[in-house]
Amino acid sequence: MSSTAQAALERMRIDKWLWAARFYKTRSLAAQAVAAGHVRLDGHALKPARELRCGDQLAITIGDQTWTIAVRGLSDQRRPAAEAQQLYEENCESQARRAAQREARQLAPVPGSDLRGRPTKKARRQIKGFNDSF
Predict the structure, then answer these.
(1) Residue 50: C-alpha distances to residues 24, 26, 91, 97 (Å)
(2) C-alpha span between 118 and 27 (Å, rounded)
């Protein structure tokens, strides 16, 4: 392995790592999330070009879920999910918090989440009647 290839694996851009670790589907989405402040390194906001090293602590917010992870490996290629999970180690409190959120979503789903497609004729008339009463 050449010294440049070895140096590249010692550190890499955070947006590229987030893409390779499968937190985001594209590298541009990862860069947007970092720029928006959804990814924090040791509690500090970052820029997408910030270099990441093994051992860094990240807090990643995706939707209503927050992952607290430690970087364990670097990869410049996007690999299968099983291999991508080996690039980081999630904090115990983070796992417990996400499990509690998942359970709460299953017990109390979002209102209207069971509705599919367009309203029926009857439902449309009810909606129109409800709106006209105001």
Answers:
(1) 17, 17, 22, 28
(2) 34
Residue of 74, 71, 61 whose CA lies nearest to 34: 61
- Per-residue pLDDT of 68-126, as tens digits, reads 999 999 998 999 999 999 999 999 999 999 999 999 888 887 777 777 788 889 988 99
Longest pairwise C-alpha distance within the chain: 74
CA angle 55, 94, 90 (to 5 degrees): 35
Contacts of 104 (CB under 8 A, 6+ apart): none
pTM: 0.75
What residues are paired with 13 via a beta bridge?
51
Can you list the pairs that 22-27 forms with residues at least 24 positions away whose Cβ atoms lie under 8 Å? 22/78, 22/81, 22/84, 23/60, 23/62, 23/67
